[in-house]
Specification:
By secondary structure, the chain is α+β, with helices and mostly antiparallel strands. About 30% of the residues lie in helices and about 30% in strands. Helix 1 runs antiparallel to helix 2.
Length: about 250
Amino acid sequence: MSCLSHKISMLINLRLFWPADAKWECYMYQDAIQKVFLGWLVLQTLLLSGCATRLNHDWYEGDDNAAALLISGETVLIESINGKQTDSAFIGQIHQYRVAPGDYTVVAIYADIFDKTADDFEKIKSNPVKLRFSLEPGKSYRVEHQVIDQLEEAEAFAARPVFKVVDINSGTALAATTEYTTTKSLLSKLKFESAQQPVFASEYGEQKMPVDKMVKTQTVSDHSSSLKMLKLSWQQATPEERALFLKWVDGQ
């Protein structure tokens, strides 16, 4: 029994021992609490029913035979497609995008919810991941990842998620490049007071990583790019900023 259900049950039992002139107020209070609880149950039911929800987005005005379909998995939130923002904000919803064939850059996030106890749950969410691949006309594709059943698996996966874009008919994964985020502080001349926001190095001019340096599957090593950015930031830093950085390194 949940904590809220237990409290409601206690209130129902306690009212039997209250004075008669107070019972009417108790009944009204009990009714109000039960209505709130019922509303909460309805909300949870709607959220859970989202697992079966499929939302269609028509982003192509051409012939159906020339269009490509890009579908997100239930725990894959697509933030943008070729720079165009989407509305995939809820876990458990499947989004289907009807798009033109061609080259695509998709920003996706892994997100899921796990029950820890009967009264507690934990939401797992990764940093954005950028995928680059090509879609052919008349074909359907799904952005997916390995099966994850346990909270511990989800936490490890979210640290560095691996997505693949699969041709639904053939079951074959497309050749794709993957780019992971780094922190904004590495791109701001070692100003550690800046927000540690995840960003893509390819979006920052000289820090742009060429595609041939990325792994032509679902993984890419971002260690070399981070080292290059660190060296560049060191060269551009003032003596005071370098001293602050060395002091920070000593404390690690």
